[in-house]
Amino acid sequence: MDEQVLEKWGWGAPFREAWRARAGTEEQPARITADYGVEYLLGTASGELRATIPGKLRMAIRKGDSARPVVGDWVSFEPRSQEGTTVIQAVLPRRTQLTRKAAGRTTEEQVVAANLDGVFLVSALTKELNPRRLERYLTVAWDSGAQPVVLLTKSDLSEDASRERERIAALAGDVPVHTVSAVTGEGLDALAPYLGRGQTVALIGSSGVGKSTLINRLLGSARQEVREVSEDDKGRHTTTHRELFILPGGGLVIDTPGMRELGVMESEEGLRTAFVDIEALAANCRFSDCRHEREPGCAVREAVRAGTLSPERLDAFHKLFQEVARPEYDVPLQTRGRQELKTPRKRGR
């Protein structure tokens, strides 16, 4: 096994340690670089291979004894030369994972991508720009364990990109916010710190915000198909599957299909971090179980009356809280997590 070759796919100490348990077998490590549904593309020490999931692993996934492989995962695979096939035998423990609630009424968790260092939350500086959607993206991204970064694309089409950036930065807290243009190249140099050799970043956003165009610009070639956005500013799905690309500088990016829905799982910590301003105000409420609705002495509602907190932001918090609240709890989020809030979780890169 040539680990130097694997390093271009992001191989490092955490995965090397996990691999020791499987060393000495006929299996080899690889990273999933594309998910086509019925089969996967693997980045291996000897090149890219197509692979499938055997029946034993499928059964383990159904029982909940194994994670379903996703793009970004490190897996153990076995080449079966006599059969002319390659099969995935196991998924190595994940360092981070980006998840969402599966579309529809189900509460099933769907893992979008794994082993990420960063998540680019992509929105276009057009009529599509929606602060409430970005708050939802921030909640999911913070819960992944990776570093969220907001990218406001198509800055060449905006009449006042700086003003829009300030508006989004006000709700993003400590999350970096960058305005970029894949057409002119404006702002792309500022992304270099997130795309160092071996670092993996996933791009998420609605259709038509320019994810594929941005990746083509970073790659220096037209690897991803792009389409025109319709007159009503609605994007069209171009990316149909998740795929990982190696950039010329050694960074790795994962393109994902546009998301019509981004359901939030029970990501309490992600919600607290995305709305840290509200959580800070809640510490001054008269009642520790304040719901910030009609209770007397509510510091959050007082901030709305004083104009220091927008009512739209509080409404967004309430809506997302209803999504993440678990049935067995009937107390507000800040009551459950206030002790954790005093010592925020440190996030490594």
From TrEMBL:
Binds 1 zinc ion per subunit. CDD domains: YjeQ_EngC (cd01854). Its cofactor is Zn(2+). GO terms for cellular component: cytoplasm. One of its GO terms (biological process) is ribosomal small subunit biogenesis. It is found in: Cytoplasm. Coiled coil: none annotated. It is an enzyme of class 3 (hydrolase). Zn(2+) binds at C285, C290, H292, C298. Keywords: Cytoplasm, GTP-binding, Hydrolase, Metal-binding, Nucleotide-binding, Ribosome biogenesis, RNA-binding, rRNA-binding, Zinc. Residues 106-262 form the CP-type G domain. Its EC number is 3.6.1.-. GTP binds at T153, K154, S155, D156, G205, S206, S207, G208, V209, G210, K211, S212, T213. Residues 114-260 form the EngC GTPase domain. One of its GO terms (molecular function) is rRNA binding. Pfam families: RsgA_GTPase. Belongs to the TRAFAC class YlqF/YawG GTPase family. RsgA subfamily. Monomer. Associates with 30S ribosomal subunit, binds 16S rRNA. One of several proteins that assist in the late maturation steps of the functional core of the 30S ribosomal subunit. Helps release RbfA from mature subunits. May play a role in the assembly of ribosomal proteins into the subunit. Circularly permuted GTPase that catalyzes slow GTP hydrolysis, GTPase activity is stimulated by the 30S ribosomal subunit. This is Small ribosomal subunit biogenesis GTPase RsgA. It comes from Melittangium boletus DSM 14713.
